[in-house]
Amino acid sequence: MSILLNRDTRVLVQGITGRIGRAQTKWMLEYGTRIVAGVTPGKAGETVEGVPVFDSVLDAVRQTGAEASVFFVPARSVKETVFETLEAGIRLIVVVTEHIPVHDTMAMRAEARRLGATLLGPTTPGILTVGEAKMGIIPGNLFPKVGGPVGVISRSGTLAYEVGGILAKAGLPPSTVVGMGADPVVLTDLSELLRLFAADPQTKLVTIVGEVGGVQEERAAEFIAAGYPKPVVAYIAGRHTPEGKRMGHAGAIVQRGMGSVSSKVAALEKAGVSIAHTPAEIGLLAQKLLG
Amino acid sequence: MRLHEFEAARLFQAAGIPVPPFSVVRTVDALPEVVGQVGLPAVIKAQVLVGSRGKHGGVAFAETPEELDAKVRGLLGGSVRGLPVESVVIAKRVPIARELYVGATIDPAVGAITMLLGTAGGVEVEATAKDRPEALFRHSVVPPGEFWGHQARALARQAGLRGELMVRVAEVLTALYRVFCRSDAMIAEINPLVVTPDDAVWAVDAVLDVDDSALYRHPELPADPIARLEHPLERAARKFGVSYVDLDGDIAIISSGAGLGMATMDVVGERLRPANFLETGGGITEELMAKVTDLVLQKPGVRGLLINLYGGINPIHEGAKGIVRVLRERRVGIPVVAKALGNRQEETWATLAEAGVTMVTDITTEAAVDALCAALEAKGTENVKRKT
Q1: Is B122 an 8 Å CB contact of chain A?
Q2: DSSP 3-state of B178
Q3: Distance from C-alpha of B313 to C-alpha of B316, rounded to nearest angstrom
Q4: Whether A220 and A92 share a structural domain
Q5: Among the three residues A91, A122, A153, which one is the final residue of a domain in this structure?
Q6: How far apart are CA B174 and CA B17, in angstroms?
Q7: Which residues contact B261 (CB under 8 A, 6 or more apart)?
Q8: pLDDT tens across B62-116, in order?
Q9: Disulfide engineering: B196 pairs with which of B43, B200, B314, B341, CB 3.0-4.6 Å?
């Protein structure tokens, strides 16, 4: 079991004929992902790594039964492409693209919620179900062949890789690793991802890899405090962040009294979450809690 | 990108928000003409991109032309909160009966635009939210929803406003909402919105922070986001597309991701003091790594360098060549420790090790910091905090 994605999920790649789209399609196929179609308007009839390319999402869905989509689409086209994809009936979309205007993200988020769709990102490394499939850019070779008991939700990409590796080394590999995105507004809330992991029988413990900025971790703490069935470990990066400075990610900023590590840690601790002070401590805490 | 007050004020004015007559001045030569346009008494405001200018000597008042001249001379060429004052706004002073706060912001928790109306203007809104929450009124709009006139009037009525004043404040609210959406803003603020004894309203300050990711579709906005960054190394980094934040320590850091960079700062900060945050993003090449290595070493007093990379989307074996080139050219005498994992890690390790970089192959950043501490101690570069 896993959340959102497994080896049977029929995946569509949007922007498949671009440089990054091609390279990542190859990696995703090698990992075992069932990629059934690609879309680039104007390139219908081509193939990429043996995957047929269509002009529209609707064509791809009708002819291949694609049910989930990963985006390697330029920031300027993401909003309209999301609306096209939702209109074609797809209900899981991974938006890897960075630098999407926040006002666009708010519109996409509202539409996704109206339709009950799960959209990850923007600025997400994607989702990887260990040993089964991946949508996005998470390197597969950092994980063992078979999934384990730990669900990982991360705002950051490279830090998710480090945490995944630390958990694998601790003998407790991830089940699914989900990048929730690093923008000021995200398409799916952390608490919603926690809810999905709660329902997954393979996942025995959930790790939150947060960072400064926004209030996602605080909101998740409220959700956990209301009664969460599995132990949760959290690490929040950015203790040394100066106020008002954006730390690489658009959403990683302590501003107007909001978004500090101490606020997030206090809220999570109060909700009963075990706090790791460094990434390596996540492995130790997970061992203790599942030991 | 934060706009200067005068830039935001022009946009507010164009949207129909009443702004007292003002003029932007870079030299005192223009003052006689300005007095004619703006009138006295006047307020003089330094155009620097920080808040709380009033508290830090960035705002002055003048009753006479002589006083205006002296005070403008006092501000121009000086600095406010460490930022040089290159221009000032001279604006007509309006009589104050009371001060309100009007703002628009993004609620990151739900992806909505929050319209704010405060009855305690002139104070920082965070302070009001904390100390006098009863003085702050909100209305939330989830796009593609609208903010209608009747909703703005309801908000103004909630805040206790009545009659013509209620209508005028509601008009300012809807106009600010239009500016906020039209310019892809993250924050828009009028603090204070002055109410005169005859119930006229005037926006006597203007704050507009625009989403950097949306600048491409705003040719009407200033096109110099990089020039507005305060620190010279931050500006240099942005020019080649990476993100740098200056910190007050002496251990330089290069990482290949924002979260990883912050985590590296955390782990370094347990025992040493980070000199900077730098993340390369996903565009590593030999050239880029040469540039960023050179950049972090420019900071005076740096006594160690920690490099933390993952080869997922990034070709780290190419990047390693750039690092090595700079280390050799600059004959860097400080300890350099690198952790680089992922695709083509063995090639990366070989390239870096050959140039004298201490390689760490463990997955934890702690292991890299341990190695750096050991190298600093071996070099006798004084007090490394013992591991606890």
Answers
A1: no
A2: helix
A3: 9
A4: no
A5: A122
A6: 10
A7: A247, A248, B253, B255, B277, B278, B279, B308
A8: 999 999 999 999 999 888 888 889 999 999 999 999 999 999 999 999 999 999 9
A9: B200
Interface of A with B in 101-130 (CB under 8 A): 101-107, 109-110, 125
Determine phi and psi for B362, rounding to 5 degrees.
-70, 150
In a domain, A128, yes or no: no
CA distance A247 to B227: 18
Note which residues in 251-290 of chain B have CB less than 8 A from chain A: 255-263, 265-267, 269-270, 274, 277, 279, 281-282
Asked if the model's pLDDT at residue B387 lies above 60, the reply is no
A149 and A239 fall within a common domain: yes
Q: Do B312 and A157 touch (CB under 8 A)?
A: yes
Catalytic annotation present for A249: yes
A256 and B255 in contact by Cβ < 8 A? no
Q: What pLDDT sits at residue B49?
A: 86
Q: Which of A99, A240, A249, A277 is catalytic?
A: A249
Determine how many CB atoms are found less than 10 A away from the CB of residue B270. Answer: 15
pLDDT recorded at residue B59: 93
Q: Are strands A150-154 and A205-211 parallel, antiparallel or unpaired?
A: parallel
End position of a domain, from candidates A122, A152, A170: A122
User: Distance between CA A194 and CA A205 in Å, rounded?
Assistant: 10
Q: Are B212 and B241 in contact (CB under 8 A)?
A: no
Query: Which structural domains are found in chain B, ordered by start?
Result: 21-92 (3.30.1490.20), 98-217 (3.30.470.20), 232-378 (3.40.50.261)
Each residue of A91-150: pLDDT tens digit? Answer: 999 999 999 999 999 999 999 999 999 999 999 999 999 999 999 999 888 889 999 999
Q: Which of A258-272, B78-92, B94-108, B155-169 has the lowest mean pLDDT?
A: B78-92
Domain annotation covers residue A48 = yes
Within a domain: residue A223? yes
Both A168 and A51 in a single domain?
Answer: no
Pair (A100, A162) in one structural domain:
no
pLDDT in tens, A58-77: 999 999 999 999 999 999 99
Q: What band does A155 get if pLDDT is binned at 50, 70 and 90?
A: very high
What pairs with residue B195 in β-bridges? B98, B201
pLDDT per residue over B292-317, tens digit each? 999 999 999 999 999 999 987 788 99
Best interface-test mutation with B: which of A103, A109, A262 has the largest number of B CBs within 10 A? A103
Structural domain including A111 reads 1-122
What's the whole-model pTM score?
0.93
CATH of the domain at A185: 3.40.50.261
Closest CA to B225 of B215, B233, B217: B215
Residue A109: CATH number of its domain = 3.40.50.720
Give the pLDDT confidence score for residue B388 in this predicted structure. Answer: 46
How many CA atoms lie less than 13 Å away from B387 in the CB half-sphere? 11
Q: What is the pLDDT of residue B384?
A: 52
Residues A16 and A102 in one domain: yes
Supply the pLDDT for residue B385. Answer: 54
Size of interface A-B (CB pairs under 8 A): 183
